[in-house]
Amino acid sequence: MASFVTEVLASSGKLEKEDLSGKISKMSRKVEETKEELYEMINKRYADFLPSLQSSEQLMIQVDEVSKEMEALKNCIKNEVQQNIQGAVTEYAKLKQQLEKNTVIIEVLGHLKEYKNAMEEFDKALPNKDYVEAANMLERARTSVDSLKVWKLSQVPLLGALSSELTVQRENLIYHLGEEWKRLIIWKLPPSNGPQSFLSVALNLSHACVEGPEAKPSALLCCVLQALAIQGELQNKIKLFSQALVKSMLKPLVVHPSLWVNVVEQQDEGIVLAFESLQESSKERSTPSQVYSKLLMVLKTLHAHLLVLDVSIGDKRLSTILGELIWEEMSGCIIHECLVHSIPNNSSELEKYTTVIKQTEEFEKALKDMDFLQRDSTDLLKYARDINCHFASKKCKDVIVAARKLMTSKMHNTVKITPDYKLRLPKLPAPGPEVKVKPEATREELTMENAKQLSALSLCLPACRISESVQQLMELALHTLCEAVGSSAYCALHLFITVRNVFQLFYDVVPTYHKENLLKFPHLAAIQHNNCMYLAHHLLTLGHHFKAHLPQPYGRGLATFVDMVPGFRRLGARCFLAQMNVQRSELLERLSTAHNFCNLDDEDNYVAASKAVRQVIHQLKQLATVWQDVLPVSIYCKAMGNLLNTAITEIIAKILMLEDISSEDGEHLHTLCQNIIEEGPLVFIPLAEEHKNQKYQEEVPLYVKKWGTFKELVIILRANLQEIVDRWADGKGPLALEFSSSEIKNLIRALFQNTERRAVALTKIK
Question: Which residues form a coiled coil (predicted)?
Fold first, then answer.
């Protein structure tokens, strides 16, 4: 109810005025309270401010007084104490410098004292041959001089004098050591390099050992070697010694089989190693076992009497150093002068070579036991173990050298090849189980064969002559392939490839090496033609005979020479055709001197024409003799027919070009042509037996294409118009078969005068 009244009064504005007056009275009370609190606070603060200000002013006065006292003290220190400190520092620096100088002087004096003591000890040790002590003292003196050089006293004359004295004394020691070395190790070298001169070579290890049950190196030798090692000269001495050892003793023992080393112990001279000659030795090369035994005798003697000392350079013993110096040259000499020549020539001897490998292993083991060798496997042992590779290389090289020698030999030494000639193929072992052999034909297959068989000579090489060297070349190839059959896979493949290379070498070398002779001499050109055909003929089946016995992949059919056959055939044909072109050119050149066979009524022209014809016939007869029994009959007849055809074709062409032929000219032409007809067949003499050549002389028209034309021309030269017309027979006679109508008309116009009869005859030539 009350709230409702309040809401009503508020809506009328009376209640709002009463609330504002109450709030104003409250604010007035709060303002009064605040003023009182502010007054009390200000009063308290300013009541205590004056005492604080006074105490602060007193403190400031005290601070100023203390500051003045500090400034006065600072000025005092700056003016008096600091001057004393600088003087003290300067004095300290001088004392320090003096101390350092005194220290240097003391150290220098110490090094000088040590140098003096070392040189005094050196002077005592050297006359007594205490070379090790002398060498050590020189090293101490050198160390002292090096220490003096560190102090940068190079300007001091004393240091130069000490260095000079040290150098002089070191050279003096080395000189004495060198003299002792010469007395202990004496070389007697030969004046030349012949095997007899090496007999004067001797190595004398004078008093190198002390006598006793076990020979030990003498103390003097030990001292000399150790002193040389201390002075750094032992390496140079051993190097010079190794060079003389290899050149004058080790190499001659390897190269000359007649030399043997003899070790003699003499009381006055010590141990002497000298050469002696083995008179019973007649071999050109020493065997590996002989070489190894001779070398080991020398090296064991050196090791027992010289290198067994406990002397080393760095961490290497004396024997190790000598071994490093001599091994490369010595092993190379053994390989090139001994092992190379011990490689077997036949594959059957390869199994025996295991003995050489074992001997090489024992040789290297002995060297390792004496510390001459440090490596497990050397080039020498690798070479001996790679015998298959070296055998193949040597065999291939020998085959190539032998083949090239045959190719560059004279070609005119020939042998007769007949159709029944066969290569002497060796009997080969049966192929392995992996090779498939073609089964034999059954009876049904045999009955299905054609009743008519080819002649046994159908695929044979025709009778001819080939170079003896080519026959030997083929035998060399057969022998090499036989070696391949019995060799390892590596050797077999290389030998087969070598045989192919031999034939390829023939293809490349022979035409180049004999080029001039092949063009100059027709006999050699014919032989070269036969050589190429002979090789091509046998290369067809050569690979087939051996392929089943060669390792894979050649056993599967790659072992063939068939791919080389076309090349050899082209080579032979090209060579013979080049010679044919030469002969053809000579024939045409001879005929060119006949003045075109015109005006033969002139004696000079007739003589020239007659001479040209005689020269042509002479050339053909000479070729017939040269090629007789050399070329196969068919090739011979074709070649002679081609050349004769060239000559008569040229003569026919010259005669047909004549515009006027008098009766006397015609008679002369007839005589010349008749001479060719009579002499031409006589050049067909392919066989040495004269009675067998009649057949080929009767078959001249088969080989000379223009022979019928030439015979008809000879008839025309003496015939009258009617005979010519009759032989023409309206284009059906023998004359029409050889000449055209225009050619016959030109001949008639040249042979006969312009008459009515000639005109009638010309009309009948159609």
Answer: 17-98
Pairing verdict, β 414-417 and 316-317: unpaired
Label residues 521-532 b or e (16+ Cβ within 10 Å = b).
Answer: bbbbbbbbbbbb
Q: Is 216 a member of any domain?
A: yes
For residues 169 and 225, state if they share a domain: no
DSSP annotation of 47 reads: H
Determine whether 430 is exposed, middle or buried from the number of CB atoms within 10 Å of its CB (0-12, 13-18, 19+).
exposed
- Integer Cα distance of 134 and 621 in angstroms: 101
The predicted-structure confidence for 625-647, as pLDDT tens digits, reads as follows 999 999 999 999 999 999 999 99
User: How far from 561 is each of 103, 419, 435, CA to CA, in Å?
Assistant: 95, 22, 20
Question: Cα separation of 576 and 532, whole Å?
Answer: 11
pTM (2 d.p.): 0.67
Q: Hey, CA dihedral for 636, 639, 641, 644, is it positive or negative? A: negative
**What domain range includes position 732?**
576-764
Residue 373 lies in a domain: no
Q: What is the largest CA-CA distance in the chain?
A: 187
Q: Which two tokens stand for residue 161?
A: 């004098």
Q: Are residues 722 and 590 in the same domain?
A: yes
CATH label of the domain that carries residue 596: 1.10.357.150
Which structure tokens are listed for 485? Answer: 């059959």
Q: Do 127 and 197 belong to one domain?
A: no
In degrees and rounded to multiples of 5, residue 282 shows phi and psi of -115, 5
Q: What are the pLDDT digits (tens) for 54-89?
A: 666 777 787 777 777 778 777 776 776 666 777 777
Residues 638 and 663 in one domain: yes
What are all long-range contacts of 49-56, with beta carbons under 8 Å and residues at least 24 apart? Answer: none
